[in-house]
Amino acid sequence: MLAFSPVKNALRPYRAIQRQYRRIGVARAPSMKAGEAYASRPIAIQQIWIPEFEDRIDRCTTCHLGVADAAMAGAPQPFREHPATVHTPRDFQRFGCTACHGGEGLATDERDAHGNTSDAPSPILPTDLIEAGCGRCHMADSVRDAPTLSRGRELMAKSGCYACHAARGHEDFRSEAPPLDALSMKTGAEWLRRWLSDPKAMDANTSMPNFRLERDEIDALSHYLFSRAVPSELRRAIETAAAEPAGDAVRGKTLFAESRCISCHTVDGKGNGSAPELGKVASRATRPWLLAFLRDPQAFNPRTRMPRYNFSDNDLHDLVAYFEDELRDFDAPANILEPLRVKTRLAERGEKLFKTAGCFACHGGVKEGERFGPDLYGIGARKATSLDFGRRSDLSRTLTAWLAAKVTAPRSFASGLKMPAFTFDAGQQRAVVAALLAMAATPVPEPYRPAVLQQASLVPAGAIGALISRYRCLSCHEIGSRGGDISTAPLTFEGSKVNRDWLAKYLTVPYSIRPILPERMPILHMTNEDAAKLADAIDMLYVDPSIPDDPFAGHPESDHDAAEGERIYTTLGCRACHIIGATGGYYGPPLTDTRTRLKPGWVFHYLQNPQRWRADVRCPNYGLTDTDALRLTAYLETLSAPPAGAKEKIR
Amino acid sequence: MRAIPSLLMAVSILALSCGRAAPAPAAATPRQSNRYELQLGKEVFQRYCVGCHGDTGAGDGFNSFNLDPHPRDLGDPAFQRSKSNADLADAIRRGGAGVGLTSLMPPWGHTIDERHAAAVVLYIRSLRR
Question: Which of A621, A628, A632 to probe by mutation at the B interface, max B CB count within 10 Å?
Fold first, then answer.
């Protein structure tokens, strides 16, 4: 037997591949000497061995000989140079190949190495899902340079996947879906029937999937939902509202536009789309409910992202009058908001269904150990042979094909499955599959795990915290590592950035700073008192100690030369993007009121390195010396807003 | 095993240095292997450049109307012929003022790295009409 092994070795395919590499190398070599180096390459197995990273032995470079060779750019595979990425060519020796690509590192035969068989423990990732490889180490929701993965993770959270499926790092997930306690006073039986049969058809913005309920199931659920006791405070709030006078629809329409509701909502599809469509809202919810909800949305759903506007009673009456006049379904039957007369037997059946169909997972809150669906631990490392393809004989027997089908048509595998249908387009489907493939069986060893930045909340307790919560600043703004990024302005160091007085005024009448951005920050009708309190708190709390109050302290008087600063402003071409006075570009914020708006320390700090404030800032880093940055600051600090009474905003 | 990577390195350094000696003709169509770099270049271009140079590089971004001189039409074949990749990368790095043109084109050398600048050059080549 042993006599055969040298023969077998001589016939291994990689030897022919390495000989071919020699020939291609010689042909591509830029000099005789380099050509000789290719020609005299020994024929041998190559490997990268990383004992501390899951004892990785990657022999991929046995065939992929040109991965780190610039002369092999554009060469035929398997010899082509690896495209430059964040980790290549820098980190070949640190990660090997299979850490990102998957595949069988030990194999020296294409079929085995790429794992193109259904029982392969780790098939190689297809190129369009390659970012799943990033996600094995990078556990954060948003991963820089991995847009597909980040989008997939965002979609999974938004779609509520973690409400039913346990997954590492999402143990505390709570859906934003509203509690349904007050549903019987909100809507009618007909509307609910339509909603349950196809939520997306009723509101394209909803993240609720279609449960494909049968007619009798919809009936049972409706009877149950209408049988639930409305909490007494909500009942009182709605009943009080029912007796309130009608408002002025014309004024309501103006108020609706001014309040910038479509920064989150849509009306007939126009708007942001992160909150419900309002085009037919008056046929969706009753007038008393709308009034009570707008008065205090957070009482109805403590997890809602909607701020509590400081509307007056008259404002509310006018807004809802506008809804009833214009934002309604004119084709809807008259009874669309009529309540249901509850039949107890049906309601009991509905209550069971509410549990067995999984409604409670989003609409009630799910506790640890109560998750409804199979857990997702290690789903990205499942062998294709261990998967149940059921009826789907059409699918290729791979994990990626299985996941893609599970995500879009979960019930096509067998009858009796409970997972609802999400409407993902092809791009979203790919993103979710990439996010799922990144869910490895075991976490990577500690040194390979980038720190997931989750600082303690920077929102203080007490009166200020209550204000930040009431106005839901975190729905759009980042503070520390928390909050949304709808707004381009993180608030973490806002106190070091803007002047307190400017901020107090801004909060009462906010506007977009950059001329190209649509007006987005809602006018919350904040009282002057609330605005002052918030401005004081931000001025005191949200500061970066590395930003000096007085940037000129300790510098020679010549660094304070505003005239020189103006010259620098002209030389650098800042006016390409910024307006001062009547001229300049529309890209960045106008600087006409710099002194009124911004603190000098911040201007100086920003000019030294704009990306330090936010990594995606477009303002280029000019690599200014401290002296130049100070002089420029001195110039900009001579610019202040026109005196009170003059037009405030430049558009 | 140890010797191989350094050999490869030597080869690649040689290849690079020789590549510089003879000016490489500007590739009009990106090679297959550059798809990733091209995509990267497009992303960087869309982040930093479209505001003035426009989506297609024609110099018609929304901010171009505030600028005199107008942003360069990057798709113009004559312009593409007249500039080598190194020229383009240099203008991106040092800005208009750095290459004797208008300072309204800012220098990006402190903001985007060499690789991103090279990717943008590759993408600009693909904008040729």
Answer: A621
How many other C-beta atoms can be found within 10 angstroms of the C-beta atom of residue A528?
11
Nearest Cα to A169, choosing from A360, A377, A30, A459? A377
pLDDT digits (tens, 9 = 90+) for A354-389: 988 989 999 986 666 678 788 898 999 898 888 999
Q: Residue A287: what residue type? A: R
All residues at 6 or more sequence positions from B46 whose CB lies less than 8 Å from its CB, including other chains: B55
The 10s digit of each residue's pLDDT in A130-161 is 999 999 999 888 888 898 999 999 999 999 99
Confidence class for position A614, pLDDT limits 50, 70, 90: confident
Model pLDDT, residue A265? 95
The average pLDDT across A103-130 equals: 86
Which residues in B lie closer than 8 A to residue A58 (C-beta atoms)? Answer: none
| Alpha carbon distance A418, A406 (integer Å) | 12
CB spacing of B31 vs A84 below 8 angstroms: no
Contact A324, A282 (CB under 8 A): yes
Q: Which of A279, A316, A324, A273 is nearest to A297 (CA)?
A: A316
Does residue A571 sit at the B interface (CB-CB below 8 Å)?
Answer: yes
DSSP secondary structure of A69-117: -GGGTTPPTTSPPPPP-SSTTTTHHHHTTHHHH-S-TT--SHHHHHT-S
Q: Which residues contact A276 (CB under 8 A, 6 or more apart)?
A: A203, A205, A206, A265
Token readout for A243 is 């007796």
Render pLDDT for A526-572 as a digit per residue (tens, 0 to 9).
999 999 999 999 999 999 999 999 999 999 999 999 999 999 999 99
**Residue B18: closest C-alpha in chain A:** A30
Q: Which residues contact B42 (CB under 8 A, 6 or more apart)?
A: B123
Interface size A-B, in CB pairs within 8 Å, comes to: 114
Q: Over the range A360-391, which residues count as b (16 or more CB within 10 Å of their CB) and which as e?
A: bbbbbebeeeebbbeebeebbbbebeebebee
The CA-based angle A608-A538-A550, given to 5 degrees, is: 40
Residue A135 tokens, joined: 């996600």
Closest residue in B to A59 (Cα) is B1
Strand partners, A271: A266
Helix (H, G, I), strand (E, B) or coil at A267: strand
Q: Which long-range contacts (CB under 8 A, 24 or more apart) does A459-466 make?
A: A460/A537, A460/A541, A463/A533, A464/A533, A464/A534, A464/A537, A464/A541
Query: What pLDDT shows up at residue B34?
Result: 66
Is residue A436 predicted with pLDDT exceeding 90? Answer: yes
pLDDT band of residue A453 (cuts 50, 70, 90) is: low
Q: Where are the alpha helices (DSSP H) in A375-461?
A: 399-408, 426-437
Chain A positions in Cβ-Cβ contact with residue B15 (cut-off 8 Å): 28-30, 34, 69-71
The helix or strand, by DSSP H or E, that contains position B14, with its residue range, turns out to be helix B3-21
* Nearest-by-CA chain B residue for A36: B11
- Looking at residue A644, its pLDDT comes to 56
Please state the rounded mean pLDDT for residues B54-78. Answer: 93
Q: Give the pairing type, strands A270-271 and A266-267.
A: antiparallel
- How many angstroms separate the CA atoms of A247 and A110, rounded? 74
Name the residue with tokens 């993408």.
B123
Task: DSSP letter for A50, please.
Answer: E
Average pLDDT of span A125-130:
90
Our CA angle for B69, B74, B75, nearest 5°, is: 135
Of B62, B67, B96, the CB nearest to A516: B62
